[in-house]
Design goal:
Length: about 325
């Protein structure tokens, strides 16, 4: 060490003349203050966990591992993540497309979402009818996911002059698909879990939807901003600073009239890039649909039967043999 101290000669670099204050800024003290305690806490957990302190207590977990690792619950959670994400992306950016590209008011843009929203409700009802008739909820999930992918793919073909008939039809396909598939994860949780765990399973599905909805709204906005930054600078008088400091639709009002069509086409392409996020999420949703268990659903409520007490006398009774402890709404039989 002494020899290294006296003999090592390090040549000067351009950064050697930076003042001490600037060098301290480069240390990123705030990041260091967040990183060091986190590393220390991780090391302590790895050293003490399971021996000195009983840190891992699966039975006291918010979501016990045996619930989350159940095949239908894991598949349903994946479906919930995807549905929550792509549904929110389209619900958020479709009105922006109507407002910026079609030139509609904010109120009209909301009204133009009605075909999608109404068909989601119709899909919920159709899912209940189909499940009741077939005794399975997986067909609704597979059909609904397929329609969702089809509708999301068609909405990625939106152009500046897309007709009303097309976007209404695309919204109907997408909305009906979301409605068919949207409630299946909750139905799976109520079917495969014991009665005392159903609330945890249903809450897990709702958490997945809201979590990815919040995440992918931000991702969609990031993609939109980056696409605008790459496309709109080709329009004269529009630069990156102006794009970042101006509202999403106000930027089009600043474009010279002779370049308005070019800017509109660039904005439409940027919005379609955000729509592609929704399409990708709808496509990978099919993994959860095919991972779901095929279970035969049978009514589990006590069924009334007739007991003949004597000649001409009929009593009403409950057949308790059809009631089991697993699930709330139905008895399941794997096929």
């Amino acid at each position: 060490m002494v020899l290294v101290f006296f003999l090592l000669q390090i040549p000067d670099r351009p950064t050697s003349a930076i003042p001490l204050k600037e060098k301290l800024k480069q240390l990123n003290l705030m990041g260091l203050a967040a990183l060091v305690p986190g590393v220390v806490a991780l090391c302590l957990a790895l050293q003490w966990g399971g021996s000195t302190y009983a840190i891992w207590k699966p039975e006291q977990a918010t979501v016990p591992p045996n619930i989350f690792m159940q095949r239908s619950i894991a598949s349903g959670f994946w479906v919930s993540l995807c549905i929550g994400a792509h549904q929110t992306v389209f619900l958020y950016y479709l009105p922006l497309w109507f407002h910026a590209i079609q030139g509609k008011t904010a109120v009209q843009s909301g009204i133009y979402l009605l075909p999608m929203v109404l068909l989601i409700v119709v899909g919920f009802i159709a899912n209940g009818k189909l499940t009741t008739r077939l005794g399975h909820y997986v067909p609704s999930l597979i059909i609904g996911t397929s329609l969702t992918v089809l509708g999301a793919g068609l909405m990625n073909t939106f152009a500046v002059h897309t007709s009303k008939g097309k976007w209404i039809g695309y919204e109907i396909l997408y909305g009906f698909g979301v409605g068919l598939a949207g409630q299946v994860p909750n139905m799976a949780a109520q079917t495969v879990l014991p009665k005392e765990d159903v609330a945890i399973g249903a809450s897990l599905m709702f958490f997945g939807q809201t979590l990815f909805a919040a995440i992918f709204i931000s991702i969609g906005q990031n993609v939109l901003n980056k696409e605008l930054l790459s496309r709109l600078p080709s329009v004269p008088d529009i630069d990156a600073r102006l794009i970042q400091s101006t509202g999403a639709t106000d930027i089009l009002r600043l474009v010279p009239d002779q370049y308005h069509d070019l800017a509109l086409s660039a904005y439409n392409g940027s919005l379609r890039a955000s729509f592609q996020i929704g399409l990708c999420l709808a496509c990978i949703q099919i993994l959860g649909a095919f991972g779901m268990e095929w279970l035969v659903m049978m009514p589990k409520f006590p069924r009334k039967n007739k007991k003949v007490a004597g000649p001409g006398v009929v009593e009403q009774g409950n057949d308790e043999k059809d009631v089991t402890e697993k699930g709330i709404f139905c008895e399941v039989t794997e096929i």
